[in-house]
Each structure stands twice: as structure tokens, then as C-alpha cells.
Amino acid sequence: MTELNLEACRRIVQAALAKGVAIGCAPMSAAVLDAGGNVIAFERADDTPPGRFEVARAKAYGAVMLHKGGRAQEALAEARPQVATALGGAFDGKFFPLKGGVLVRNAAGRVLGAVGVTGDSPDNDEACAVAGVEAVEGLVAEP
Amino acid sequence: MTELNLEACRRIVQAALAKGVAIGCAPMSAAVLDAGGNVIAFERADDTPPGRFEVARAKAYGAVMLHKGGRAQEALAEARPQVATALGGAFDGKFFPLKGGVLVRNAAGRVLGAVGVTGDSPDNDEACAVAGVEAVEGLVAEP
Amino acid sequence: MTELNLEACRRIVQAALAKGVAIGCAPMSAAVLDAGGNVIAFERADDTPPGRFEVARAKAYGAVMLHKGGRAQEALAEARPQVATALGGAFDGKFFPLKGGVLVRNAAGRVLGAVGVTGDSPDNDEACAVAGVEAVEGLVAEP
Amino acid sequence: MTELNLEACRRIVQAALAKGVAIGCAPMSAAVLDAGGNVIAFERADDTPPGRFEVARAKAYGAVMLHKGGRAQEALAEARPQVATALGGAFDGKFFPLKGGVLVRNAAGRVLGAVGVTGDSPDNDEACAVAGVEAVEGLVAEP
């Protein structure tokens, strides 16, 4: 795969939401962005608060814009909180340095986009995002 | 139905995209928003320009925020362009007074949300949005 | 070419500015964006007003986000001014429906990005943008 | 020199990117702003994440707006994080208090603009920005 198509994105989103159900999480929401940071697909599960799109997109957007997964962003934000604040400003609020933002690469290592998942703890959000990416053959998740 | 659930939103989005294929449109994108204007689901078809999310959401957002479908918004914008400009400002750019934004009501007339579709001509966008809403039993489309 | 590299973007920018000098225009400015709408290169000539970056980027951004060159955007804006206003809102001000925004495709027709040029009349801006794109072998300008 | 011209800015940008290559950094991006905070030139190297323009400009913008290099901004942000947050808001997100933003003065001490470089560690970003400024005779870098 050289870029994410809608069929792949649907599977990512639905596998991420299904993983949340399987491991007993609160209802999940997931966004998939292309390599330029533009939204391809999003779903918010039933019985979730309304603000999920903004958080899910922000987790994925920061990952794409920096080519860094949520863990690396979280480490950066803990080491240098003022940099995290500055990135939030530079990216107009579309930055969320927490587990749950996962970079999507193809087998050759090329960045195809990112997934952002939110709904439960950061660890569970990340597990669901990774499960989503791994549901599509040939994609590699970088949490 | 008293509020849109994800299953209904998936059917709306997928029926809207399928309608576009069926009537020979350019590839479509569709967003569904709840009664509070917050995104529940979005999909962008393959081979579309990257800016589809912003337009699809804006079409649906204006519909929900004003309880007016795209046609009524378009008529308003033609009669009073300065009001349309002001609404764009008031809604922070999430306003798109054109066919393709369709209000979603239940059988009792209650507003449950809105759909925004973009990809082809305004008339075709509207036809796809209406087809999406009508794919779910009990929902009424107000274009 | 499957995506714009910096060497190509430098040639586009410099050829656009040189074209302006060659045809006797006021000093030019040019921005090149990738297929996701993100800036790769920009230059503002000497003796220009300071606001050139925002205009040049906006011309290119609208082209990439809609897959429409400046002429098509201008025609849209003339036919339906309220749609142009709405697009400006949806794209957060990064929309400038005027000649001078030129889509960049490769020989196979794939959109690689866009160029936005500003400094003189819309016709001259467009001529410079096209000259920039055509300075790179294998690129096709869609004004 | 009493103000930055495009030729000087090109040399700054290209020398900054070349310095990164010379010292083995990840690919660099560099923006040059004039004394009013407006962009004159920007380049993003190949194989970089797409969000570089926003960060590079923000580093330079804060330097110009405050007449403080990145080091001084970083010290301020560490001593008074809430001031850094406020500056990010006041400058609409165009503030990045980290090494890599370098003020550009002429020999007489007059501020002519600033350079913002991003791509590797803050120390390396700063080294590249300084190398860029020092590539132009008569310019003094204030990191």
C-alpha cells in the first residue's frame, strides 16, 4: 500500500472500536488521517461524550505532523511541557501528546497517515489504535 | 429513534457514498453530526481532494445549528449575503449554505442531527445526502 | 515524480519569480505546497508588501484542498459568491479564489501539490505560476 | 545591510540546511522572517514530516516579536511557564520558546528579522540557524 484507502480506514476504525469492546473499555472513538493530516474516516461509539472527534483528530494530527507516535509525544511533553504547549499553538490546537495517537507506516517504512483513538485510559486507547492498524495487512503501527 | 446511534450513522454515510456511485457522481464524502453539532461519523471516498472533511462538516453544522437544511440556507444566503457571512463568522467557519446539508428528523419531527455531503454538484450532493438519511427507517430528510 | 521534492520546489519558486522579472511585473512571491496542503517552499521578492506569504499560500491551499486551479475557483466564486465565502471559512482563511493558484500534477495526472503566486495582476500571477511549474520536467500545470 | 533581502534569506536558508547535512542531523527546515514578523523565505528538506513550516515560523516569530532569541525565550518559559502560555495565545500560536529561533541583527545591532530552524535536537537546530545567519556577511546571530 502506498496510501491509505477508505476500505483500509474503515477496517482500522472498526477494529479499534471492536478491540475496545473486547477488552472491556468504555466506548471508543477513532479517527484516521492521511499523510498530509487530512481526515479520511471517523467514528464515535454510542454513549460517548460529544467532544471525541476533536481529541481523536488531535492525537492523530500531532503524530502525522511530527512523525512521532503518542508515546514519543508524551515523553516530549513530560520532559518539556512548554514545547507541548507551543506545539498546540503552532498546530492550532490539533495536538494531543498522549498515548492513543499511532503513526501508520507501510512495510517499507513510509508514513501513510495516523490513527487517533480516545475513550478510555491512554494505555487502552493505544491498544485499540494499534489493534486497528494491525487489522490491515501490510500496515505497521508506531505507537 | 430519539437520537442517532453509530449504526444508523454508518448506514447514512455508506448509503450516501453508494448513491453517488449509483448515479455516476464524482467520489463522495459524508459527515453525520448529532443534534449538538458534534461529529459522529465521517468518510472520504478514494480519489477525492483532501479538503472534504471541512466542507462536509460545515454543511451539516450549519443545518444543525440553525435547524435549516441546505436549501433554506442557500435561499437565506442569496437573499441576505451579509447574514451568511456573519453566520460563517459566528460559527467559526463551520457554515456552508449550499445544497448537500440535510437536516435529520425522526418521525415525530424532532431534530436528531444533520448530514453533510460534498463531491459533485450541489444537486447531486443533496441527492446523496437524502439517500443516506432515507436508508435508515424512521428518519426523515429535510434538504 | 510521485511527490514534489525540495529541488523541484526551488526551481518552481525561482522560475516563477524570474518570469515576473522577464515580463516586467511587480516583484513576485511564490509558495509551493505538497498534496496535503503543507508548505514546502516560499520566497518573497524584495520591495514587496509584507502580506505576501498569506496570499500565496491561500491561493495554493485552495487549489490543493479542492483539486481546482485558480481559474476554476474564480469561476466558482463569481457564480456563487457565498460559496467562496463559505470555503474561506471552512479552510480558516486559507482560500483565495483568483488566478495565480495552479495545481501541480505529474504526467500520470496525480496531484502532487500546488503553487500560489501573487504580486501583479491575476493574469500575470498565473503566467508566473505556470512558468514555475513548467520549469520542472514532468510536471503539468493546471491553472 | 539595513533590511534582509531575498538573496540574503536564500543564503541563510540554504546554509542552515547544509549545516544540518554537514553535522549529520535529520533533514532540516528553515524560515526567515523580516523585522515585522512576516515570512520572506522558507524551505523544508525532503523526507521531513509535514508540520515543519508551522514550527519553524513560530520559532522565528517569537524571536522577532520579543527581540529575544530562542535561548532567552526558553529561559523565560522555564522560569514562568504561564507567561509562555500567554505569549502563545497573544501571538495566535506563533510562539515556540526553544533553541532554534535566532534573532538576526546587523553590525550596528539593529534587528533585521529572525530565523527559525527545526528538524533535529534543539541544540542542533540552533547550530544550523546560527550557521545560516553567519553565512551572510554583516549579519549577527543572537541565539
From TrEMBL, chains A, B, C, D:
InterPro entries: GlcG_carb_metab_protein, PduO/GlcC-like, PduO/GlcC-like_sf. Pfam families: HbpS-like. It comes from Tropicimonas sediminicola. This is Uncharacterized conserved protein GlcG, DUF336 family.
